[in-house]
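WARN no homologs supplied; continuing
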Amino acid sequence: MEISRESGVLAHITSLYTKFGIGDLGRAAQDFIDFLKLGGQKHWQILPLGPTSFGDSPYQSFSTFAGNSLLICPEKLVDWGLLTQSDIELNYNFPDDIVDYPMVIEFKNRMLRLAFANFDAGADKNLTKKYNAFVKDNAFWLADYSLFVALKNYFINKRREEIETEEYNYFARKNKNILTKNQIDDYYYGAVWSSWPEDIAQGKVEAIIHWQKQLSDEIEYHNFLQFIFSKQFEELKQCAAKQGVKIMGDIPIFVAYDSADCWGNKDLFMLDGNGSPHSVAGVPPDYFSDDGQLWGNPLYDWDAHKKNGYTWWLSRISKALERCDILRIDHFRGFESFWSVPYGAKTAKKGKWMPGPGKDFFDIIKKRLGDLPIVAEDLGIITPAVEKLRDDLGLPGMKVLQFGFDAGANNAHMPHNYTTHNIVVYTGTHDNDTSAGWYAAADEDIKDQFRRYLNVDGTDAAWDLIRMAFLSVANIAIVPIQDVLSLDSHYRMNVPGVASGNWQFRLRANHLHDHHAERLLYLSKLSDRNQ
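OK structure emitted
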């Protein structure tokens, strides 16, 4: 990917301020694009867009193709005649600066159910025509997804009043050597697909036909949500293009076990006859965790993917590029080799490296889709083989300035050690502390090196790092919105390895001002990033 000298801001859509308790695809997103334009920024980096599961992580989604219906803008539904203004009047006291997911889910579900009822009653024939075309064009993933979610909700509701039925006991006996008692309960009462009756868990044709008929209304509802999400996101992307802002999306290399992707494509994953993974994904002990990170995602059967020409991956990347101009592939190193942890392990320490598909995968992708605008997330334990794969493909890698001050002058994240322009430099990512929080918590020797390296006093550490990123030779500089606002650790997006309390950050109504944009524009011009 050829990239020019530009800059941008990292802010997930959920983090934008709206009166509905969560950012969405409406006015708030359009205003943020205007802010980026005013600040001379050419990139808006977001996190994965899929519907989130327990824990609210965008990196653990029910589908890599579907969109998160919580991002649907209620006001646009009023504009389209699917709701009235009174339908979206609030009786909710949403928190000011975090996303209260249970409260948001309750409100959005009520509002979206009503919009669907109006749509189903024939609110707009032209909209219905577009909906039918959408369902047809996206059947390759939408049919599995909508049935998957309908089934999951059906079994969750059915089991809510049940206690240790014979069905539960059968599932518990089958998994007693793999899962803990708490995990068995979570899987069963959370209706993970492997806990469903075996015929539908295995995707038998007769079972699918039966459940499609029984759950037809719910399937239509979830088709509708995906249609509305797609329509609203398309309008947002057009708005960004008019302002000269490119959307940088993010796709995790792995998908969630409890997902339509895994359930509908079991032959593409390393699963046993019961549908349980042989091993799961993670990373060994690293900067973020002494125990490593046990992600728990199922691992790909790369031989099976190769045999069918990587068709699923081609569809995945194509769909992502419909929404985004550039893609950051999270955990790029997994294409060279991936950390395989035995299923049931308590930590990621006792794993092993297994070979990924390597250059063959990208050669097929390039042959079918052409040169791709991809950024390789190459953080963590990176070997010469991973670097060679990245460089042979000509993909820009990543540097994170917060990582640059704890290993002496030869640290690869320090700008004087950059050996190429073809990189994307960050002050920090969604997994890091805010830069102000990082500096406040840093050891004194790191603070001392920081101050001496930048010739600053440390009173404005976030903007010191932003200036450092913009003035570096990296072709693209990206800064989290928390750093633009010099926010402290309270506003951090994610703490890797911590199961709860993440992904909740959102802006307050009065956070962003023109002077923030003017400060970005000044640095963009100074560093020749505003061409």
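The radius of gyration is 23 Å.
OK
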